[in-house]
Amino acid sequence: MTDIKKGLAGVVVDYTAISKVNPDTNSLLYRGYPVQELAATQPFEAVAYLLWNGELPTDEQLAELVAYERSHRTLDPEIIAAIDLLPLEAHPMDVVRTAVSVLGASDPAAYDNSRESDLEKSRLLFAKIPAMVAYDQRRRRGQGIVEPRDDLDYSHNFLWMTFGEEPDSVVARAFNVSMILYAEHSFNASTFTARVIASTTADLYSAVVGAIGALKGPLHGGANEAVMHIFDEIGTASNVGPWLDEALASKRKIMGFGHRVYKHGDSRVPTMKAALDTLVEHYDAQELAELYDTLEADFVSRKGIYPNLDYPSGPAYHLMGFDTLTFTPLFVAARVTGWTAHIMEQAASNALIRPLSEYNGVDERHIEGYVPDF
Ligand code: ACO
């Protein structure tokens, strides 16, 4: 009997030097650094540099990346036109997927798969995706585009371009933490998708577009959006018990809980929960906090399944003022750093990813009356 590993569960398919997930010690390292330490001390720009290059940047290296990012934030007219072609009802994940595709189709260097060129594309996507996401949320609200401000860092500017107001530092700090925590997580479904596409030596943009498609599903990145839908359904903390009775009786998955790798809690949750707590205080959102705590306590005590990163980040993005539909594109803006680091790592020691399958269809059969004429 062939030993089939459904969902590739437990299968180690390659080496990676980018991040290490250790569910036993509940730790996540980016290039050796605990993610909590990076979230506490670094701007997201420095973490992007780390993921791509293997080391934290020197002051000059960081200044160079920051200057690049600030000078490439403006959306070109063809990207704006492509976004405007899409209906306002289009899911923002479809919008960002399309906009990235247009960016790739317009890049004359798209098919140059050298590391130098792919690093340049990675930096370009890092700078442009926030502008795509911010513009899409604004157009859905009937608001015009907000031009970027090159006196603001990545997180402050992202919030500025989305809301047209300079954010409070508490909010920008929580946003920076969320970007760092979402940036990278080894061979998750979207990153593996990017690596599969890169392994065919297709261009980096195609790999990122494929990864966005994989991230969209509610079993992966789409869960942060789904968490808010659950909160809306439940309404108040007092309704958690009856709501959970019904949800579990009908075998519903509770979004924001569970993980393929972490079975005793997601290493990123305490850091994001602390950031959420600062937002709860800032926005005086005690009711939401009570709902959050009650659902977590009740579900964990019934099922022993713990929250994943999407559980605290959904309500955090909600408090910041993002539309629920925009949450997963925020994940894209962060994870594009990890995806592109993996695409370059795959290219550096490539082997076409092509697993096998065990056939379990009907036995060989033939077309009636068919006589070979050769
Ligand atoms: N709610 C209810 N039951 C759950 C949940 C959940 N969130 N997660 C797991 N279970 C149950 C399953 O029903 C299953 O029970 P059974 O054995 O009685 O059939 C058991 O736990 C194992 O679950 P699987 O789905 O087989 O485990 P897997 O490792 O494949 O799943 C996954 C991981 C897909 C993340 C799952 O926990 C889930 O669907 N969670 C909800 C979606 C979610 O939050 N995704 C975000 C992932 S993290 C991220 O992208 C940042």
Automatic annotation (TrEMBL):
Keywords for the protein's UniProt record, in alphabetical order: Acyltransferase, Transferase, Tricarboxylic acid cycle
SUPFAM superfamilies listed in its UniProt record: Citrate synthase (SSF48256)
Database matches in InterPro entries: 2-MeCitrate/Citrate_synth_II, Citrate_synth-like_lrg_a-sub, Citrate_synth-like_sm_a-sub, Citrate_synthase, Citrate_synthase_AS, Citrate_synthase_bac-typ, Citrate_synthase_sf
KW Methyltransferase (keyword) present: no
Functional pathway: Carbohydrate metabolism; tricarboxylic acid cycle
Molecular function per GO: 2-methylcitrate synthase activity; citrate synthase activity
Reactions listed under catalytic activity: oxaloacetate + acetyl-CoA + H2O = citrate + CoA + H(+)
Entry's family note: Belongs to the citrate synthase family.
PANTHER family in the record: CITRATE SYNTHASE, CITRATE SYNTHASE, PEROXISOMAL
Protein name per its UniProtKB record: Citrate synthase
Organism: Microbacterium candidum
